[in-house]
Amino acid sequence: MTKKKNGSAIQRRLIPTYIFLVIVSFISVFPFYWMISAATNTSVDVARGKIWFGTYALENFKALTAANDLWGSLGNSFFYAIVQTLLCLFICSLAGFGFELYHDKGKDKLFSVLLLAMMVPQVATMIPLFKMISSMKLLNTVWAFILPAISTPFMIMMFRQNSRNFPIDIMEAARLDGLNEFQIFFRMYLPVMKSTYAAAAVITFMNAWNAYLWPKVVMGQKASQTMPMLIANIAAGYTIDYGVLMMGVLFCSIPTMLVFFILQKQFTEGITGAVK
Amino acid sequence: MDTRSSVRKDSSFFKKGDKTLNKKQKGLNIQAKQQRAGWYFLAPATILIAIMSFWPMIQAFIMSLKTGSSANMQWSEPIFYNYTRMFSDKLFMRSIGNTFLYLAVEVPIMLILAILLAQMLNNKDLKLKGLFRTCVFLPCATSLVSYALIFKSLFATQGLMNSILVHLGILESNFNFLGTAASAKAIIIIALIWRWTGYNMVFYLAGLQNIEYSVYEAAKIDGANGWKTFWHITVPLLKPTIVMTFIMSINGTLQLFDESVNLTKGGPANSTITMSHYVYNNSFGDSTTNFGYAAAMSFLIFVLVAILAAINLKVGDTRD
Amino acid sequence: MKKKILAVLLASAMVVSLAACGGSGSSDSSDGSTAAPVTSDDENTLTVYAWDKNFNIPALEAAAADYKENVNKDFNLEVIEQSQSTDVENAITLAGSAGDYSTLPDIVLFQDHWAHKYITDYPDAFQSMDDVDVNWDDFSQEKLSYSMIDGEHFGLPVDNGTVIFAYRTDLLQEAGYSIDDVTGCTWDKFIEVGEAVYAKTGKYLLSMDGDGNDLPYMMLQAEGESQFTDGKPTFAENEKFVQIIDKIEEMISKNVLYLANDWSAYTDQTITNDMVAGVMNGNWIIPTIEQVSENSGKWEITSIPTLEGGEGYASNGGSSLYITANCEKTDLAKDFLTYTFGGSSATYDKALTDGGVITTCISAGQSEVYNEGVEYFGGQPIYAKIVEMGANVPVIEQSDSHYGCRKQVAAAIINIKDGAKTADALKEAQEQVNFEMGN
Questions:
Q1: B164 and B95 share a domain?
Q2: How close C14 comes to chain A (CA, Å)?
Q3: Options 1.20.1730.10, 1.10.3720.10, 3.40.50.620, 3.30.360.10; which CATH number does A60-274 get?
Q4: Residues C198-226: tens digit of each pLDDT
Q5: Is the CB of residue C273 less than 8 Å away from at least one CB of chain B?
Q6: Could you give the number of structural domains in chain B?
Q7: How far is A111 from chain C (nearest CA, A)?
């Protein structure tokens, strides 16, 4: 009885918190509502700021698919993002594993040097990188898209930090059992670090999916364009159909939201390990 | 076995060194073999970063010492011409001013908001935690291009925000938010806060979950109020996370590009243009294609980020 | 089980990555991830970059059909569609700076104002068109001045940038004026009419893109002058230009001219949202005007006002075709371009009907199709009129920094609107242009 009373007293004290959180949540979600409602309205209604849902969703969708290669772009985006995520996770987790569990003076120094790469502005390296990719004849291929992004200091750092929670003693036990270092990585490290992989996957997938500047430079051909490029193109047309544009934006946003929803729990756990 | 765990114990973010290696040990052979295996693990990542980040950076530096059309670049005369030149470039100075304004206004508001939200969501008595957390994080799932377009249409002169504000009587007539310098800057800042607060909050939330609840219980017994606990317990314990998010935010803000391009195109009259956007304009945009100058300016950005990050690390490191 | 799947995925990823490292040297990996080539091995196939499927792509297709029917039945033109004109421009810049033109198709279409810059910056990028059998005198000389360097031809014109001034005749009438009152009038008279139109109908007589700044350029060209003299920006000292800027500011303050934030606001908010009673721009703006179907029959076009009075002519936008260094089938490319865009009525008529592309070729502009009345414009034969006006556009000095200059002048206009002095703002803009040009 007293406990219950106590509980409702606590809840009462939390009312300002709830109000604040509801307001913040509303502001966070409102633009999504706008995006979805705009996707169901005509261009004129969107431009005039109509707030309610309309009945034009199907027409917008038809116009979107008629004038643009929606499925191709979605397919490209998925393909690039998945390949980039897999490779990035693999390469960066290998490195994080190596940097933390085999660390010595040299490797620590190297790690600090690699961190510098985090601060290199993208606009600075774009032109030399383009020349390099172009001379390798990789323009408009998945490699042009992913190569600069599959080894990032941030991901390495994340795996390195998380690796501190890896029970080191079982490595010794495993070695006594005759496993070599690579077997230890594949059979023991990989399964234990599941939540770190999930968090890293969410971040990498979103980055890859949302990448715009670099793909615009190296993926010039229509056949290799991605979703952000597709919607940027709709927005750059001589005349813009805002309903169609918002339909495109909606299609561009759904996959990243889904990935986040599916991996949400592991994502939070993975980040928790990283900031320990 | 012993040596390995002793190595483990003194591991920290930026390690000073590893004494154990200097000692003579039994099984040095195995140890060396393992250390070598370590190098194999980090080799692919290191080589990729070297080729994809450092090598282009070196080339960009060489380019920054050259002038001329992009097909036929010559060594500049004097050699640091592009570097001295940028300080008399009013537009570049303006873009630095804009970028630092975003940095000074947006980053503190965003990070404080993120910590507050994390603190609230970490309350174990709070209901619907998952729902709130998801809502606050959701903006991060949108691509930079998408959210810039969403904000652009929300704040258009005939757009939704205007019709709401006029309807509520706050505005008398439709206001050209993106066509007025001050409000255009404000909207970029609002958009940034909207997009990135949840992202930073996740890191704080994770950091808070690593703090033992008993610490708070103890503080409560000592009679500390909510604000005191927050300031004297939460903030110090979150310090490494705060330093990390600060560095990430500084890095992100100084390289701010998509918002300036897609939301305002740097306008009106260049009042919202960012450094990266101006650099881009000098490489691909409407301005003269001047790769050398663009490279020199991006080097300045690199140096600024590095300096600010170093200051951050120093300030954040005082506890040791 | 899950662990295994993850391990398999990661392992396969590793294999792929190793394969990539090995395969990057030889470009012929066949995993479907390699790029489609930009040129074709087939000896009768040409490739071209173009960007607007409602405008210049139908024109190219019309030319291809014409050539295929009348010259070479095996001919095939592969249009590689780009999303926007800047994509073609970036592709040229990147190819040029990498010194590797193999990323370019046989032919590229790009905006005229870039031509001088690209040809001088990348002298190896384009093949000379001097030796083709085209009657150059049959083209608007102003248009050709873009694609010529030191008298040498590098490109062949496709569309026409001649500026039209389209008016809503019904609204003019409501305000007590007719289209004759604004044909050949002074800008002062125009402002008078504009004030009356705004007072009577609530519509602006003109709008401009506050970010791109077409208007001052067009107004100055109508005066026969350029923002540049001998390669340097001189607009701040140009009295006529200062007057023009003052007129623009006057128009803004008197609600004659609406300053839109950017290009899309200019087209969507002011034109298709029916905010204006007049539109002045390159004739490619016509399809945008025509989007407001309820105003059909109410529009008419004419020339543009000038400072001292008299009909003004200008040109804005438009593009030409260039043969790249990567083209190995030069003879075919030249023959194709010469036969079609060199003056074939079949090509130009179909380009007009399918894509609304208007020619700068004077003889092609005299065909029946061109002389038909256009219902939307009250039965006025606007196409023939545009070709005719195009021949009157004065040739003025062009510059590599055309767009950079426009951007700075646009900023100056906004600054003046917000209180800066005209002379100071223009001087600052000119300094910035000089700075960007490295002067």
A1: yes
A2: 7
A3: 1.10.3720.10
A4: 999 999 999 998 887 789 999 999 999 99
A5: yes
A6: 2
A7: 22
Q: Rounded to whole angstroms, what are the CA distances from B184 to B152, B194, C265, C292, C418?
A: 10, 15, 15, 30, 15
With 90 as the cut, is the pLDDT of residue C247 above it? Answer: yes
B143: left (phi over 0), alpha (psi -120 to 50) or beta: beta
Q: Quick check: C20 and A143 CB within 8 A?
A: yes
Do B47 and B100 lie in a common domain?
Answer: no
Q: Which chains touch B (3+ CB pairs under 8 A)?
A: A, C
ipTM value for the complex? 0.86
Q: Do A86 and C10 touch (CB under 8 A)?
A: yes
Q: How many helices (H) and strands (E) does chain B have?
A: 15, 2
- Residue C350 pLDDT level (bands cut at 50, 70, 90): very high
For the segment C357-379, the average pLDDT, to the nearest whole number, is 90
Strands B74-75 and B66-67: antiparallel
% of chain C surpassing 90 pLDDT:
53
Residues B233, B171: one domain?
yes
What would the pLDDT profile of A164-186 be if each residue is shown by its tens digit? 878 878 888 888 888 888 888 88
Q: Which residues pair with B75 in a beta bridge?
A: B66
Alpha carbons B256 and C426: distance in angstroms, whole number:
29
* Contact status, residue C272 vs residue A48, Cβ threshold 8 Å: no
- Enumerate residue ranges in chain A where pLDDT < 70: 1-6, 237-239, 275-276
- Token look-up 């000095």 returns C397
Predicted pLDDT at B27: 55
The CB-side HSE value for C196 (13 A sphere, CA atoms) comes to 16
Q: Bridge-partner residues for C229, per DSSP?
A: C232
Q: Under CATH, which architecture does the C45-161+317-366 domain have?
A: 3-Layer(aba) Sandwich (3.40)
Q: How far is CA A74 from CA A68, A79, A143, A187, in A?
A: 11, 8, 18, 34
CB contacts, 8 Å: B300 with chain A: none
Q: Tell me, yes or no, whether B264 and B309 share the same domain.
A: yes
Cβ distance of C36 and A238 shorter than 8 Å: no
Mean pLDDT within C302-324: 93
Q: What angle do CA A126, A129, A131 make, to 5 degrees?
A: 110
- The pLDDT of residue B21 is 44
> Residue B131 belongs to a domain with what CATH number?
1.10.3720.10
CB contacts < 8 A, A to C, total: 106
User: Confidence band (pLDDT; 50, 70, 90) for C25?
Assistant: very low
Residue with tokens 């042009």: A144
Structural domain boundaries enclosing B50: 2-64
Q: Give the closest-approach CA distance of A215 to chain B in angstroms.
A: 13
Give contacts of B 150-179 with A, CB under 8 A: 150-151, 153-154, 156, 158-164
B20 has a pLDDT exceeding 80: no
Instruction: State yes or no: pLDDT of C417 exceeds 50.
Output: yes
The pLDDT, as a whole number, for residue A238 is: 65
Q: What letter represents residue B76's amino acid? A: S
Residues of B with Cβ-Cβ distance to A98 under 8 angstroms:
37-42
- Read off the pLDDT of residues C121-152 as tens digits, 9 standing for 90 and up: 888 899 999 989 899 999 988 899 899 888 89
Instruction: Show which of B64, B94, B117 is a domain's final residue.
Output: B64
DSSP-based three-state secondary structure for C317? coil
pLDDT per position as a tens digit, C251-289? 999 999 999 888 878 888 888 888 999 999 999 888 888
How far does the CA of residue A276 sit from the closest CA of chain B (Å)? 6
Fold of C163-314+395-437: D-Maltodextrin-Binding Protein; domain 2 (3.40.190)
Q: Where in chain C is the domain with CATH 3.40.190.10?
A: 45-161+317-366, 163-314+395-437
Residues B95 and B34 in one domain: no
Please answer yes or no on whether A231 and B299 come within 8 Å at the CB atom: no
- At C156-167, the pLDDT tens digits run 999 888 999 999
C66–chain A Cβ distance below 8 A for any pair: no
Same domain assignment for residues B8 and B130:
no
Domain for residue B153, yes or no?
A: yes
